[in-house]
Amino acid sequence: GLLGYVYPSTASNLPVSTTTIYEKIDPNGGPPAGFGTIWTTSSGGEGPYTNDGPNGSFKCPTAGYTDYSGLSWSGSSTVTPTSTTSYTLVASGGGQTTKTITISVTVYVPPTISFTSSLGTAIVVGQSTIIYWTVAGDANTISWTSGDITNTNLNSNSTVSPNDTTTYCAVASGLGGTSPETCITITVYQIPTGSLTIPAVVNYNENFNIEYDTKYANTSITITPTYQYLDGTSTTGTAITRTSASGAELGDPDSDTVRSGVVPITVPWNDFGPYQITFALTATGSGGSASVLPSTVLVNIDQTPDNITIEESDGLLKDLDPVITPDTEILSEMYLIDDIDIPVEIKSDYPIMVDVNGGEDWEDVREIDSGLPPAGGNDIDISVEWSRLPDHD
Predict the structure, then answer these.
(1) Cβ distance 284 to 219 under 8 Å?
(2) ∠274-276-280 over CA atoms, to 5°?
(3) Do residues 2 and 30 touch, judged by C-beta distance below 8 A?
């Protein structure tokens, strides 16, 4: 309202001779007749006044004043609310009247999207995972820009089963504007595979090569040989490790997912073989592990001489027990045992000695306890088993 300055009169209807000024706010919001200007006293203590104030006990100045009736106030203030906020402006004057104005500022929050996955961001092909999304801010729609999700609810989820690494992207829109495109990538690891290519048969005492082929084995590739010998023993060889792949995803270049090559095999040959070699391949990657069924290489060992004839010995050692050679020489013919891959070990049901290649080097022979008397009572049975050495007479 407008401010007016007045002072009371005395009983003689004259102003008091003081410079005390009282102020009053017009409650009607405008100046009444003869009222509403601001009176400033003169140096003598009072200024001109009229006798037609708002009531008989007040006088209104008519001269010597400064008129502020058109006075107004204005200004501004910068605010940065993060949510809808009300601001109240209170104006007062002279302690008489207060003016209150309230302004409400509505704030719209730009939307954002966040993603999670029930199995994390990596799965093995064939698995399913649940993708959850949450929209924050002022949005009322969601649109998918990548991936095969069709659910457009603002806060929801969808089950996905991608066969290859897939990226799912969406934007949210509404009164707060449009969110940045937000994505989640589900990496899909493939299950490793492997195979071995080996020769069907190899010759005794000759080393050879095998070949292998794997896919998606980005952790390890191991080939393990097992050697089986003629004496019934079996030995597991040192595992052969090959360089693993650097990737296990469909989208990787073949050089990252495929590993293959030739592996030279050095066999621990001895007098008893081996007569067969079995290979097992294990390929391990981010998608799991694959074991290839064992593959067997047969070894060609010639265990049969071309020709051997041992004469009958019926009665040869009759009444001679024991026979000690060479002090008492009872010699047989020289027997040719040829065209075999392994050396000869002679076994006998009786203790005898053997000279090899006519070198006058008599050696003991391992005795066989057959649990039965020799056939015919006087015969000496000689049996032979083989391990590799050059041909012998």
Answers:
(1) yes
(2) 115
(3) yes
pLDDT mean over 124-142: 96
Torsion angle in degrees (nearest 10) through CA of 357, 359, 361, 364: 20
Q: How many angstroms separate the CA atoms of 54 and 50, rounded?
A: 11
How many angstroms separate the CA atoms of 161 and 126, rounded?
Answer: 7
Distance CA 307, CA 299 (A): 22
Q: Can you tell me which residue has the tokens 């998918």?
A: 144
Q: Is the pLDDT of residue 72 over 90?
A: no
| Element (DSSP H or E) covering residue 257 | helix 254-257
For residue 390, say if its preceding peptide bond is cis, omega within 30 degrees of 0.
Answer: no
3-state secondary structure of 368: coil
Q: Cβ(173)–Cβ(181) under 8 Å?
A: no
Q: Which residues of 28-55 are buried (b: 16+ CB within 10 A; e: fewer)?
A: eeebeebbbbbbebeeeebbebeeebbe
Give the 3-state secondary structure of residue 10.
coil
In this prediction, residue 97 carries a pLDDT of 56
State which H helix or E strand residue 256 sits in. Answer: helix 254-257
pLDDT band for position 306 (cuts 50, 70, 90): low
- Residue that wins the pLDDT comparison between 333 and 323: 333
Q: Cα-flanking dihedrals φ and ψ of residue 177, to 5°?
A: 105, -155
Amino acid at 74: S
- CA Rg, the chain, in Å? 57
**Structural element, H or E, at residue 234:** strand 234-236
Q: Which helix (H) or strand (E) holds 255?
A: helix 254-257
Using CA atoms, how far apart are residues 133 and 153, in angstroms rounded to an integer? Answer: 9
Whether residue 322 is preceded by a cis peptide bond, meaning omega within 30 degrees of 0, is: yes
- Residue 11 tokens read as 């009983």
Distance between CA atoms of residues 255 and 75, nearest Å: 71
130 vs 156: CA distance, rounded Å: 10
Residue 185 has which token pair? Answer: 């990538």
Give a three-class secondary structure readout of 291-324: EEEEEEEEEECCCCCCCCCCCCCCCCCCCCCCCC
